[in-house]
Amino acid sequence: MALPPKRVLTQDRLRTAVQNLLLETDWTEITVQDVSSNAGVSIGTFYNYYDSKDEALADVRACLSALIKKDLNSLLVTQSQVECRISLLLKYFVNILNAKPSWANYFYRAESFSERLDGGLVALLEPLVLEGMLSNKGHSQNAKITAFFIENGFFPLLKQYHVNGTSVPEEDATQMVVLALLAMGLSGDRLAQASALVCPVTPIAALPQSIFELEKAQAGHA
Which domain of life is it from (predicted)? Predict the structure, then answer.
């Protein structure tokens, strides 16, 4: 089997280096020299691939966002009711904090979901909130505002648990979902049943993730 081009392997080392550093410290404290050193390449080589460290982060974020969204799609498709999908979406990120320490560091060292997930949680929530509006499940008048409201309440809570080094109890996760669904205008049995759903721990591999190996696996190569 032919070896992948050197350029592919070098970029994979740079992407892995970005992940390694993100798991250890804040992005604002990381330099291009840190990324290059961790990847075992020169600074000049780094600039052959990226114009800046923020461009490198954007590249890694896009790759890992695709992985997260694929994992979420396989989870959310198990539910037909939109409120149940919203519940599992939120509890998925609770489970990452509780059971996936490297992913928890990746997400909750950031200042917002959008720093680590393309489009932030809003990009995932807004179409679900809109679906709820169109099916008359809830009384929200603006899907984007509602999605922003939910994300901006949800992320700081999870970040604080992470900073404190504590897990989120199931009853707390359920209460977060209740508040999110109330923001949509849901109430009664639908709200109670959806918020009580238990989200299974997802099978995402630990970070750092070789993007090259990930893309090769997704393409169906051995």
Answer: Bacteria
DSSP 20-72: HHHHHS-GGG--HHHHHHHHT--HHHHHHH-SSHHHHHHHHHHHHHHHHHHHH
Q: Is residue 1 a part of any domain in this protein?
A: no
Whether the pTM exceeds 0.90: the reply is: yes
Q: What is the DSSP letter of 1?
A: -
Task: For 89-111, write each residue's pLDDT tens digit.
Answer: 999 999 999 999 999 999 999 99
Q: Tell me if 54 is assigned to some domain.
A: yes
Residue 136 has phi, psi (to 5 degrees) of: 60, 30
- Other Cβ atoms less than 10 A from the Cβ of 114: the count is 16
CATH number of the CATH domain containing 56 = 1.10.357.10
Distance CA 20, CA 165 (A): 20
Which residue type does 69 have?
K
Establish if 156 belongs to a structural domain.
yes
Beta carbons within 10 angstroms of residue 61's beta carbon? 19
Q: Which domain holds residue 192?
A: 6-218
Hey, CA dihedral for 33, 102, 28, 48, is it positive or negative? positive
Tens digit of each residue's pLDDT (9 = 90 or more) over 157-181: 999 999 999 999 999 999 999 999 9
Among residues 131, 34, 38, 116, the alpha carbon closest in space to that of 81 is found at 131
Question: Shortest CA distance to 146 belongs to which of 132, 131, 126, 176?
Answer: 126
Count how many domains the chain has. Answer: 1
